């Protein structure tokens, strides 16, 4: 039985009226399990109108009252964690344990956003001139929108909506059409937590829905996460329509392995960081960079040995290290990238193509693939693959390794494994990448710091979560006031100065 999903507008489930739908698969079986409506411009406009009206009420609530809704939501989502993780796993294909992590990392940003009363405080200067005080206040933007990718269907929507809502905005989410059920459930939970109807809306759809959000003048800001070409398109189109935009794109994250590193620790870290979630993470490590031939040979041997023991299985199977990819297209695309690597002359140490899981022969599975001796001119090195493919690109020296990560067009995350503090500190300071791990393979910053890549991994000025998120979702107003009001200076025709 194929379920028919809805939008969530004005506090209720609303059936699609465009007549266009997209299939939602169970990637374990390859079967269609639901179909999701793709919104028309008119449907998006209705959601925006609803959100604009609801924002007038929500934005006038005091910040602490708004934060209490977030607190209640935290309570509800904690109770719902098990079923939500299974729902996420069954649409995305990541294991249930990994799905819990997806939700939990989003929850942590809601916890951070509960601090809105503090985070929204402005600045105050007493006595900036005679009787003059200057203060600033942070005010909500109004209606803001988030456009999110398939690979974190809970975490990234929560990263966006938490700070946006806490700051007093209303929010329209356009989640990935490939796994939209978890975002819809999150919207239900917020309503149950006491969020006024219309403050949080989920509009399902594709380019048509996105374009409607990008061009409507009532939408004041766009937060996007997804692939780089779309990130660039969204950034340019949003800017052309006078909107604030932060757009995060693809990645090719390197791990530098110094000769003094503990290679067993490194190899274990690379299993999780390279193959966890079938490599469908923007912070996955896809390039291992051992420094020196000896380190390279030893690391390649350890990785090949471990890869042979990974378990690929049904995402609801607790024994699986990772599950299927999101859809058949992804399997085809990653398989083609593997073939291109072979054709270009890289050394294939493990080939995951053609991997099947007994009982689920039509699932979107790929086994772990490992390449050694990948050169920087190969597509395998230059492009994001977004699958369970780890490559080894060897460097002769530390400086060469540093230059590799710094010169790559993507700059999302990078990691160095070493026991030498001098090297680690130098690396963190000099590498041209937005998020750095030192003996940490996936350096996703904690909720109260900010997340954002550089170069082709991020467009816009402010990062996600942490203090930046409140700056992104608010505008600053600055007030200059004079009390007592009776000071008489006579008419003055020069630029006001505060000399005394
Ligand atoms: P995607 O770019 O295909 O889709 C992202 C969103 O954009 C979806 O909501 C989709 O419906 C919409 N979209 C797709 N095509 C569009 C078009 N032509 N016009 C307007 N909107 C369009 O990305 P994806 O496949 O869902 O996600 C995987 C990508 O996201 C990878 O490249 C990954 O690295 C990246 N990602 C980046 C981060 C980060 O923080 N930098 C985090 C997670 C994922």
Structure description:
The protein is α/β, with parallel strands linked by helices. It has two domains: 3-249, Aldehyde Dehydrogenase, Chain A, domain 1 (3-Layer(aba) Sandwich); 253-438, 3-Layer(aba) Sandwich (Aldehyde Dehydrogenase, Chain A, domain 2), CATH 3.40.309. The chain has 15 helices and 23 strands. The strands form six sheets. A seven-stranded mixed beta sheet has the order 15-16-17-14-13-19-20, sandwiched between helices. A hairpin with a 2-residue loop joins strand 2 (7-9) and strand 3 (12-14). The longest helix has 30 residues, at 63-92. The radius of gyration is 25 Å and the shape is globular. The structure holds nicotinamide-adenine-dinucleotide. Nicotinamide-adenine-dinucleotide is lined by residues 147-152, 174, 176-177, 206-207, 210, 225-227, 230, 233, 248-251, 282, 384, 386, 412, 453, 457. The site of nicotinamide-adenine-dinucleotide has 27 residues, from helix 7 and helix 8.
């Amino acid at each position: 039985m194929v379920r028919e999903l809805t939008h969530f507008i004005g506090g209720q489930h609303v059936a699609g009226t465009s007549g266009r739908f997209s299939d939602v698969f169970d990637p374990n079986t390859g079967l269609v399990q639901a179909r999701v409506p793709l919104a028309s411009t008119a449907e998006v406009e209705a959601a925006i109108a609803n959100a604009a009206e609801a924002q007038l009420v929500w934005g006038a609530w005091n910040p602490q009252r708004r934060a209490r809704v977030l607190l209640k939501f935290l309570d509800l989502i904690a109770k719902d964690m098990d079923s939500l993780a299974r729902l996420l796993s069954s649409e995305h294909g990541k294991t249930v344990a990994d799905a819990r992590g997806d939700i939990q990392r989003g929850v942590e940003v809601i916890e951070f956003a509960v601090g809105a009363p503090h985070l929204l405080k402005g600045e105050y200067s007493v006595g900036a001139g005679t009787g003059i005080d200057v203060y600033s206040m942070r005010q909500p933007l109004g209606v803001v929108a988030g456009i999110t990718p398939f690979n974190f269907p809970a975490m990234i929507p929560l990263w966006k909506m938490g700070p946006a809502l806490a700051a007093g905005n209303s929010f329209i989410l356009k989640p990935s059409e490939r796994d939209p059920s978890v975002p819809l459930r999150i919207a239900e939970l917020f309503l149950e937590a006491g969020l006024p109807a219309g403050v949080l809306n989920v509009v399902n759809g594709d380019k048509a829905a996105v374009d409607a959000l990008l061009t409507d003048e009532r939408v004041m800001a766009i937060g996007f996460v997804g692939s780089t070409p779309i990130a660039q398109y969204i950034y340019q189109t949003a800017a052309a329509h006078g909107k604030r935009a932060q757009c995060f794109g693809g990645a090719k994250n390197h791990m530098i392995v110094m000769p003094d590193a503990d290679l067993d620790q490194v190899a274990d870290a690379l299993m999780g960081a390279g193959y966890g979630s079938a490599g469908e993470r923007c912070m996955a490590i896809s390039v291992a960079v051992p420094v020196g031939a000896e380190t390279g040979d030893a690391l390649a041997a350890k990785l090949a040995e471990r890869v042979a023991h990974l378990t690929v299985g049904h995402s609801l199977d607790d024994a699986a290290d990772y599950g299927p990819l999101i859809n058949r297209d992804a399997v085809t695309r990653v398989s083609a990238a593997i073939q291109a690597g072979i054709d270009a002359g890289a050394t294939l140490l493990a080939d995951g193509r053609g991997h099947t899981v007994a009982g689920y022969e039509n699932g979107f599975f790929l086994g772990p693939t490992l390449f050694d001796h990948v050169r920087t001119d190969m597509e395998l090195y230059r492009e994001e693959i977004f699958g369970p493919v780890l490559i080894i690109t060897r460097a002769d020296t530390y400086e060469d390794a540093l230059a590799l990560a710094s010169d790559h067009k993507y700059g999302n995350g990078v990691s160095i494994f070493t026991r030498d503090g001098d090297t680690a500190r130098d690396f963190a300071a000099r590498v041209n990448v937005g998020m750095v791990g030192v003996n940490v393979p996936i350096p996703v910053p904690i909720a109260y710091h900010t997340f954002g890549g550089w170069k082709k991994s991020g467009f816009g000025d402010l990062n996600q979560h942490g203090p930046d998120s409140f700056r992104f979702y608010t505008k600053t107003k600055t007030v200059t006031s004079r009390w007592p009001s009776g000071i008489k200076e006579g008419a003055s025709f020069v630029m006001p100065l505060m000399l005394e």
